Amino acid sequence: MIKVIFFDLDGTLYKSTEIRQKFAEAAYYTFSKYKNTSIENAQKLIEERREQLGEKQGDSVPYTLTLRSFGIPIEIWHKENIEHLDPRQHLVQDERLKKSLIELKNHYRLAILTNNNDTQANRVIEALGLQDIFEKVYTYNSFKILKPDQEFFTKAVEDLEVAPEECLIVGDRYNVDLEPAKELNMRTCKVNGPEDIYQISDLINKKFP
Q: Exposed, middle or buried, 10 (CB in 10 Å: 0-12/13-18/19+)?
């Protein structure tokens, strides 16, 4: 029986072309600053690496994991993206999403599991109007671990004092969100954005009767 539903954040509870572009620009700037190279060269190297990693993993690769592959510390990347981008300037409250999550909250414990940092996660939650919806928000700051490292999932499950098989992971990336969860015997549900969350009660009932 499912007791806890973990949601990925970026790309799952919202989709935004503007935020995606701002994250890309922040990644190029961070690389340029840390590696002492031009923005143009940073963009070229990052996108080439993302393509290589994507081909290897069979899915798109976030900028966070791409920068880490170049040896750029996550703390530096997070500091720069906090200064470069405020999601509240690009998102609005999503009443349908809020209604769907409130309905779920009547039956399950809800939490977030994201590679983002505390500041950006809280900004997104505020912008979407989802304060007080989630029991816990697990970010990189929680354990200093990133998905797809299974330890991130394990520590969150242990913190909520449930078994892996009692948890459902909802996310938009198979290799980052779902594959490691499956290997831990957690239930999984792939979505392509908030539109799928609007119907998630039906999806859960059909997939996990």
A: buried
